[in-house]
Write a structure and sequence with these properties.
- The protein has 2 domains: about 160 residues, Nitrogenase molybdenum iron protein domain (Rossmann fold), CATH 3.40.50; about 110 residues, Nitrogenase molybdenum iron protein domain (Rossmann fold).
- Helices cover about 40% and strands about 10% of the residues.
- The chain contains 10 helices and 8 strands.
- The strands form 2 sheets. The chain has a 4-stranded parallel sheet, covered by helices on one side.
- Helix 2 crosses helix 5, helix 5 runs antiparallel to helix 6 and helix 8 packs parallel to helix 9.
- The chain is globular and about 60 Å long.
- The chain starts with a helix and ends in a 13-residue tail after the last helix.
- The protein binds zinc ion.
- The site of zinc ion (ZN) has 7 residues, from loops.
């Protein structure tokens, strides 16, 4: 019995040790699963990562919960998306944390969108209309090449905060770029049939993915990003099917698919569910599988819609 108790206590202490913060590790508070994954790629065992949201939550609408304030209080670094994606909650959390290190402008505050060229900046912005993309489209992680530029800046920032491990951050970044570049080449080859394919989107969360793979977005069900589609706008989208017909409607896992289904049923095209980030669908279980799953789901959508019809391939070459 004594022996069993001894074994149990050894196992227990091993578990506790495994969950205890590694001494000296940089504590990183991330706002979304894709940034948590990138920090883990570059930070390795030198970071402890917390993530504020899951792949099933609407990233535009998060509550500033006490648990987030507690996590931010002990953070050495905040890694946010930026471009106002978290404007409704992150500034509140950071202020309430009372943590001077992570205030905007300090080395402990990092915004990914600062290292990427934003697309779809509104020409005329009227916030009263509820546009949730006032600075341009913030969903930059849809293009995996953006993970490389953000990753480079992140490696530099981690090195600044934790200089003794600078070489490790730089090495991991180099390894990450090698693996990611090789994966990108495979995804691009696999996704070749999607080039020039016209599609509809519910919310404009996949614009960077579309731009990377050469997919042609011919309409968004949300006329203004973040505002529920109106019946009149959906009818208009449907009427436009007579011209350049979309081959599928895509929507993110966190959204109610009713508008997508309404249009798809009438247009007789498939509805394709895509993970907007890691964990949005079960197959998007890590950073690499996230991109792989989006490509596969789009290809499946193309096939289920009847393969190559008009508006196909090579149109944008
Ligand atoms: Zn959005």
């Amino acid at each position: 019995m004594k022996k069993i108790v001894g074994i149990v206590s050894t196992v227990l202490s091993a578990c506790l040790w495994a969950f205890a913060p590694t001494a000296g590790a940089v504590q990183v508070f991330t706002t979304a699963p894709e940034w948590a994954a990138l920090v883990r790629e570059i930070g390795g065992e030198d970071v402890i990562v917390s993530v504020a949201t899951t792949g099933l939550q609407d990233p535009h609408r998060i509550q500033a919960k006490p648990s987030l304030i507690t996590a931010a209080r002990s953070a050495d670094l905040v890694v946010a998306n930026g471009a106002e994606l978290e404007v409704a909650w992150l500034p509140l959390v950071i202020r309430a944390s009372g943590n001077a290190q992570i205030q905007p402008g300090r080395p402990g505050y990092f915004e990914a969108a600062a290292y990427v060229r934003l697309i779809e900046a509104p020409v005329l912005l009227d916030r009263s209309q509820g546009d949730v993309h006032p600075l341009g489209n913030p969903h930059i992680h849809g293009d995996p090449r953006n993970m490389l530029s953000v990753g480079r800046a992140l490696a530099a920032r981690l090195a600044q905060i934790d200089p003794k491990n600078a070489a490790a951050y730089s090495d991991r970044y180099k390894r990450f770029t090698g693996t990611m570049r090789a994966s990108i080449a495979v995804w691009e080859r696999d996704a070749a049939p999607l080039r020039g394919v016209p599609i509809l989107v519910q919310h404009k969360v996949f614009s960077y993915l579309e731009s990377w793979l050469g997919i042609e977005e011919v309409g968004a069900l949300e006329a203004i990003p973040g505002v529920e589609p109106s019946g009149a706008h959906l009818a208009d989208i449907l009427a436009r099917q007579a011209g350049n017909p979309a081959r599928m409607v895509i929507y993110p896992a966190y959204q109610d698919d009713t508008p997508s289904r309404w249009v798809a049923e009438r247009a007789k095209i498939p509805v394709v569910l895509l993970p907007s980030t890691l964990g949005g669908t079960p197959d998007a279980s890590n950073l690499y599988k996230y991109y792989e799953s989006m490509v596969r789901r789009l290809l499946d959508g193309l096939k289920s819609g009847g393969g190559a019809r008009n508006g196909n391939s090579q149109a944008h070459d």
